[in-house]
Structure to design on (225 residues):
């Protein structure tokens, strides 16, 4: 459940913060990028109305009462927070400015990207060898943090601890390939034939944070329904 602090974080977002929009339609999912103009706490979230090709292609669905999912990364705090909520378009303004006015959310989903806090997720991924494209294991990410995470796939006895691999994640807009070091292997239920592989990321914390933001945003795409 969202807390008062979560809504205060939303209310205090800086102008021009990047915003990810997802328009829900019966036949397709449309994703757009915008910028935050301002927030009227308890009443509305005001976004910039885009004019590039992706916005032009989506113009038929940018209308009052259209259901939208909003996601935003708050980078102003020490621990970056990802906020997500479902809402509807109140008004499309194109006279005094180009604004998209969205109803203020009643519910809010937040994910804090703290240094030692793992975020539970479920995204398909695979491990490949560093020096080739050979797929070592296919499965899904179970959790992720700035330092590392857990990958679930078929149990194997030939993977060497402290070996390096490439972790590949197919996002909707790009393919992420991340160098990881395998640190442990723990078999799950025997009948499942699966194991959990713990891994660590490199030392570039800023790059790790950017990668994790993309991964968590992708995860929220399927959970904020």
């Amino acid at each position: 459940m969202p807390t008062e602090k979560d809504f205060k974080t939303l209310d205090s977002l800086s102008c021009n913060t990047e915003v990810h929009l997802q328009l829900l339609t019966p036949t397709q999912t449309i994703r757009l990028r915008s910028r935050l103009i301002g927030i009227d706490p308890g009443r509305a979230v005001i976004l910039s109305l885009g004019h590039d090709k992706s916005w032009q292609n989506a113009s038929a669905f940018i209308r009052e009462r259209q259901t939208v999912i909003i996601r935003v990364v708050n980078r102003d705090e020490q621990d970056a927070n990802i906020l997500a909520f479902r809402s509807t378009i109140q008004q499309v303004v194109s006279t005094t400015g180009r604004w998209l006015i969205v109803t203020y959310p009643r519910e809010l989903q937040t994910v804090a990207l703290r240094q030692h806090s793992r975020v539970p997720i479920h995204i398909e991924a695979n491990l490949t060898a560093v020096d080739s494209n050979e797929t070592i294991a296919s499965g899904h990410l179970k959790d992720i943090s700035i330092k590392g995470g857990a990958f679930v796939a078929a149990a194997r006895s030939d993977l060497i601890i402290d070996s390096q691999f490439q972790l590949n994640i197919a996002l909707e807009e790009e393919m992420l390939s991340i160098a990881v070091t395998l640190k442990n292997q723990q078999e799950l239920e025997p009948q499942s034939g699966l194991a959990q592989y713990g891994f660590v990321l490199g030392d570039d914390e800023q790059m790790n944070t950017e990668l994790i933001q993309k991964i968590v945003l992708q995860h929220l795409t399927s959970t904020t329904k």
Summary: DSSP finds three helices and 13 strands in the chain. The chain has a mean pLDDT of 86.
